Amino acid sequence: MTTVALERPRPTGLVGWLASTDHKRVALLQLGASLVFFVASGLAAMLMRSELAEPGMQIVSRQSYDELFTIHGSGMVYLTITPLALAVGLYLIPLHIGAAELAWPRLALLGFWLYVAGGVIMFLGFAIDHGAAKAGWFATYPLSNAANTSGKGQDMWICGVFLAVLGNTIQSGSLLATIVRKRAPGMTMARLSPFTWSMLVTVLLALTSFPVLLGTMAALEWDRLQGGVFDGHYGPVAYQLLFWFYGHPVVYVMFFPFVGMAAEVISAFSGRRFFAYKGFTFSILLFAALSMSVWAHHMFATGRVNNEYFSLTSTMLIVPAGLEYFALIWTMVGGAIVFSTAMLFAIGFLLLFLIGGLTGVIVASPPLDYHLTDSYFYVAHFHYALFGGSLFAFFAGAYYWFPKVTGVLLRESLGKLHFWLMVIGANLTFFPMLVLGFEGMPRRVATYPERFTTLNVVATAGGFVIALGVLVFLANVWWSLRRRVPAGNDPFGGPTLEWWTTSPPPRLNFDSLPPIRSFAPLFDVRENRP
Amino acid sequence: MQRRWTPLLVWAGLLAGLTCLQFVFSTNPYYWATLGGAALVTALLAGYYLWRPPLRAEEYVPDSSYATVAVAVGAAVAVVGVPFGPWLYLPGLGLLVVGLGGLVHELRVERRRV
User: Fold this and answer.
1) Which chain A residues are within 8 Å of B55, Cβ to Cβ?
2) Euclidean distance between CA atoms A220 and A239, whole angstroms
């Protein structure tokens, strides 16, 4: 299929960017917005960690603390990592499949603006009477009803979540249609890059789970305005069952794209084709399907769910996860590994996510969950998975694809400093939380007994090391854009189609395409394969 | 470009299988309605791609869409207006209608150019 842009002057300037339907511009806008929300949510975390540096109340009130942990969690889940994952997909998917543009590009733009509006509305809660939402990132019912959380901040949170998730759902539809309909000649499903497969399962997860949250948020708002939705004896359990049908798959929406990014980075910097490609694609499909079926393991402690089924499916996740790890590690074995910053972050992802995954196996067992539920062990578990996992892989991708997006290289020396600060900071922050949780420190508390002080001080220090690492990354981006080192079209010898075109790519991505005979078409070209 | 529906059908099959597995353990309607519903929606989507007519040889893409931004802002104001009252959701709905009108206009102009 040939795609032709409309013959009219391309809009320029800020307004032109803000209304652009070019998938690369929409993706960069979304990337920028999600990084802004990342910094804002990170500042909330820094305030919380500062408060927790000593027992007792020093910096914020208890109510403010509740608002901070709610907005930190919500900001990271709804406004940072999920949109970040989709933004990377919006930029790269058309390039990986040899397409000129997304399917339904207006939907991608619509999704971006709904998401930004949702984020702004959520944060505006801080500016009104009674403050922002304070019922946690999953708005536990009945804590989130009108009687227990008064004020419009909670309503704004519900509207913000609804809009942001609606935007993400719409963008997922555009990405699914792109992968299914817009592939270049020769790009069969069996030749999609590992990253494209990871995005395909991501959007399938999003399209089948996010609409349930949209309905749940609408019902929760109705309950706050009129009552009578969740206030029966089964109401709180029903709310949780519906919320977690979104709440668990979204963890994988925040994970799979980053596995795909790590896979591309590991393949490029090992100089090898991705190992066990078919096994990887099968395992990622199985992994995603199972992850749709584990949601009530968040509710073991309620005593109102079928623990046997949800424990079984949660434990079964080990099988596809193990296959993926095997494929990622075996891609490196025998390869000519280059320990660039991108590769270091990809290896860091493997190691830190392993801790997140193994602690997940522990809490998939109901008896252990009863001991650990709502403790800092959980905080450590999902931060190892989402911070140590997703964000490390994001940074791997950032160092790998920054030259394609901007045409210039990031500085390796600053990159390695960034990496080591993040490794040290992440472990200093989150490992003490595992111990704190096991010893009984509950989550979402603004103070604690004296015996937990030392580990909390270590965790707070680690938080500031992470913040320093993020500052080094931002400085690296700023410095690299000011003192430009041209990258060329293919600085790392990557396997996929985006490295065939210019850096940055033109409006319709490609002037020509190489023959596509496998999932690594540029390796084929370099190896002169027929 | 053949069998565009295959991954969707595989996905629907996996979800349907897990829904069946749930019945071994429990018949809680929340379990099968959510997961079974997801399987059904995916199967319908696969059916849509199965019967969808072939793609046109040429497809035009827009460079920008101000109407889309108006739709998004209008929808956002209308949604956040729900807890605040008609003084906020009515202007939002107005902007949404204007945006949708603009979108129809944009699509008509594109069709004429094609």
Assistant:
1) 1, 181
2) 8
Pick from B5, B66, B83: which is nearest to A225 by CB? Answer: B83
Average of pLDDT values for A440-446? 96
Peptide bond into A142 cis (omega under 30): yes
Tell me what pLDDT residue A125 has.
96
Both tokens of A194, joined, read 């590992």
The answer to whether the Cβ–Cβ distance between B79 and A5 falls below 8 Å is no
**How many angstroms separate the CA of residue B94 from the nearest CA in chain A?**
17
Report helix angle A62-74 to A23-51, nearest 10: 150
In sequence order, what are the beta bridge partners of A486?
A408
A516 residue type, one letter:
I
Distance (Å, whole) CA A77 – CA A96: 26
Inter-CA distances, A166 with A76, A155, B75, Å: 17, 16, 11
At A190-209, the pLDDT tens digits run 999 999 999 999 999 999 99
Give me the interface pTM, i.e. the ipTM: 0.95
Average pLDDT value for chain A: 95
The pLDDT value recorded for residue A271 is 95
Residues from chain B that touch A293, judged by Cβ atoms under 8 A, are: 15, 18, 21-22, 35
Nearest to A10 among B22, B34, B63 (CB): B63
Distances in Å between the Cα of A508 and the Cα atoms of A23, A105, A488, A500, A502 are 10, 13, 19, 13, 11
- Residue A78 identity (one-letter amino acid): Y
Domains of chain A: 20-526 (1.20.210.10)
Q: Is residue A179 predicted with pLDDT exceeding 80? A: yes
Cβ A114–B72 below 8 Å, yes or no? yes
Helix (H) or strand (E) holding A211: helix A194-226
What is the reported pTM?
0.96
In whole angstroms, how far apart are CA A40 and each of A44, A47, A80, A186, A379?
Answer: 7, 11, 10, 44, 19
